[in-house]
Design brief:
Layout: E1 6-10, E2 17-21, E3 27-31, H1 43-88
Antiparallel strand pairs: 1-2, 2-3
Length: 102
């Protein structure tokens, strides 16, 4: 019986442990390296990231709030202009009925 020779390798890209069959080149086993919790960041870095995301959210909220206030102002101006235009134009009464045109 021939004994299968295998090679233990470490991937230089991802750091995974590989067991490869020397004769065929097939990967027999693959183990990913253990990652530290929270991506290796300490508590202070995570807290700073949380503060940054909160500040971004507040800034975006204020921008949208200002845009909504500006939108309300623009709609009010358009309404006033249409109201003034309606008051200035004479009212000709109701349009003619199609039956009266015969």
């Amino acid at each position: 019986m021939s004994r299968t020779k295998s090679l233990r390798l470490t991937c230089p890209d991802c750091g995974s442990d590989l067991v490869v069959d020397a004769r065929t080149g097939a990967v027999l086993s693959h183990r990913r390296p253990k990652e530290p919790p929270a991506g290796g960041k300490d508590f202070d870095a995570l807290l700073a990231g949380l503060d940054e995301s909160r500040n971004r959210a507040e800034k975006l909220f204020e921008q949208e709030k200002a845009a909504m206030a500006d939108r309300e102002r623009l709609l009010e101006e358009k309404f006033r202009a249409a109201l003034q235009r309606a008051e200035e134009e004479p009212d000709d009464g109701p349009p003619p009925r199609p039956f009266d045109l015969d």
